[in-house]
Design brief:
There is one protein chain. By secondary structure, this protein is mostly helical. About 75% of the residues lie in helices and about 0% in strands. Among the domains are: about 105-130 and about 145-230, no CATH class; about 245-435, no CATH class. The protein has helices at about 5-25, 25-40, 40-55, 65-80, 80-85, 85-90, 95-110, 115-130, 155-170, 185-190, 195-215, 220-235, 235-250, 255-280, 295, 300-315, 320-325, 330, 335-340, 350-370, 390-395, 400-435, and strands spanning about 135, 140. Strands 1-2 form a two-stranded antiparallel sheet. Helix 9 (about 155-170) packs antiparallel against helix 11 (about 195-215). The longest helix is centred in the C-terminal third of the chain and has 36 residues, at about 400-435. It is found in: Cell membrane. It is a multi-pass membrane protein. GO terms for molecular function: protein-N(PI)-phosphohistidine-sugar phosphotransferase activity. Its main location: membrane.
Length: about 425
């Protein structure tokens, strides 16, 4: 590494890395990131529920072979049992906002070492005030699902943070009802949040009333509208590429890039896949490209297998040769840490340059072909350990995504080979010096 490169690296590590780490550990962003990650199992279950209830059967399909007969039988069975099959969807994607609220509240109260259950009850109560007015239909009261679904996620994030901060302010400044120390904690804790809960009630009832008067919408609906332009912009190719390049660059400097941008990307991709799933279920055209695992499945989950195959085919150095034998089981299932830390890719231009080139090619091709309607959009979350080539099909139920994955894998391999060979040649020289 040249002296100028060394100075640049040291400067970034001294000045930029601490800032990036501080942003990654920012309490609200960390709570959102961890909270959104914890609800992924719900989105997987909800997605497969809709898939069972609404199989991907083309209009006019006839039972001309065994597979088509199976699809038509599946469709007939799903139609007869739709009310039962969609229950998991209704109670997961259909009620996503309260789960997000619970998850973020959990991580914030854990960070502050506050009583979890009393604060959680407080947050849930305030959320229902501003999210879901009861509706009476035929003398029966119902909670409308709109603001409790994915559309209410951003409102849930805001309410969780604001209410917990109000509670914390009151507790920290001892503006609470404090019972004697002899009273058991289980009895004393609810009284501790009573004063801040009353304050939050008055505050949010007033804000909600103002919102209804001037916008005809509950507060959570307004919060969603405020965030909607941001989510729309994030569903564009330039923003997707920018996020990907930022993540790649952070990885280059030894910072977990995916974690850093996760607090931004995960809420958006979760919302988008939930909206796509709702549109699919209702028979409407899906509208969001940047959904579910789109970013990862067309990014590192192609690039790292291509790097690995290039190493298997051409590596002669002891390090890469041995690594190419150890890494395949993890890489197949999208566990790329053995390659990241074994190569290593940190401060390694031989992998940063081709990785950046490949991720730009991959995301651009996938985005443009999807926007043109050639490829199906993602509407199902598959477990993240599902191999990429399988995941692109499960996520979209479109076989053409498999074809594109194979083509991009070959392109990434071609891009990776010369860089892997150059790095391998350098390692061989270093190993020869050590031997001598």
């Amino acid at each position: 590494m040249s002296e100028s490169n060394t100075r640049l690296t040291n400067l970034i590590q001294e000045k930029v890395t601490p800032i990036a780490v501080k942003i990654g550990n920012q309490k609200y962003l960390a709570a959102i990131r961890d909270g959104m990650t914890s609800i992924i199992p719900l989105t997987i279950i909800g997605g497969f529920s809709v898939l069972l209830a609404s199989p991907p059967v083309p209009t006019g399909l006839k039972a001309t072979n065994f597979f088509y007969s199976f699809l038509l039988s599946w469709q007939s069975w799903a139609t007869a049992n739709s009310n039962i099959l969609t229950i998991p969807y209704d109670l997961t994607i259909g009620l996503l906002a309260p789960y997000v609220l619970v998850a973020i509240t959990y991580y914030l109260t854990k960070r502050y070492k506050m009583n979890m259950i009393t604060n959680l009850i407080s947050v849930l109560y305030i959320f229902f005030i501003v999210a879901s007015p009861t509706t009476t239909i035929k003398s029966v009261e119902y909670l409308p699902q709109t603001d409790l679904s994915a559309q209410g996620m951003f409102g849930a994030m805001v309410i969780a943070i604001v209410v917990i901060e109000i509670n914390r302010f009151f507790i920290k400044n001892k503006l609470v009802i404090k019972l004697p120390s002899s009273v058991p904690e289980g009895v004393a804790a609810p009284f501790e949040v009573l004063t801040p809960m009353i304050t939050s009630t008055i505050l949010f009832v007033i804000l909600n009333a103002i919102s209804i008067k001037y916008t005809k919408s509950y507060l959570v609906g307004i919060i969603y509208l405020l965030f909607k332009p941001f989510t729309n912009v994030s569903d564009t190719l330039p923003v997707i590429l920018l996020l990907a390049i930022i993540a790649q660059t952070l990885w280059f400097f030894g910072i977990h890039g995916d974690n850093m941008i996760g607090s931004i990307v995960t809420p958006i991709t979760t919302l988008n896949i939930a909206l796509n799933l709702k549109q699919y279920q209702s028979g409407h055209a899906m509208t969001h490209i940047f959904a579910g695992s789109f970013y990862t499945v067309w990014g590192g989950w192609i690039i790292y297998p291509a790097f690995l195959l290039a190493m298997i085919l051409f590596a002669k150095s002891a390090r890469l040769h041995s690594l190419s034998k150890l890494a395949p089981p993890g890489t197949i299932f999208n566990i790329n840490e053995p390659l990241v830390f074994g190569i290593p890719t940190v401060l390694n231009p031989y992998f940063y340059i081709p990785g950046t080139i490949c991720i730009i090619i991959n995301l651009t091709a996938a985005y443009l072909l999807t926007s043109l309607g050639i490829l199906g959009k993602f509407y199902i979350y598959a477990p993240w350990t599902t191999p990429g080539i399988i995941q692109v099909f499960i996520s979209s139920m479109d076989w053409k995504n498999i074809v594109l994955w194979i083509i991009l894998f070959i392109i990434d391999l071609v891009v990776a080979i010369p860089f892997v060979r150059m790095y391998d040649h350098q390692l061989q020289k270093e190993e020869q010096v050590i031997k001598n």
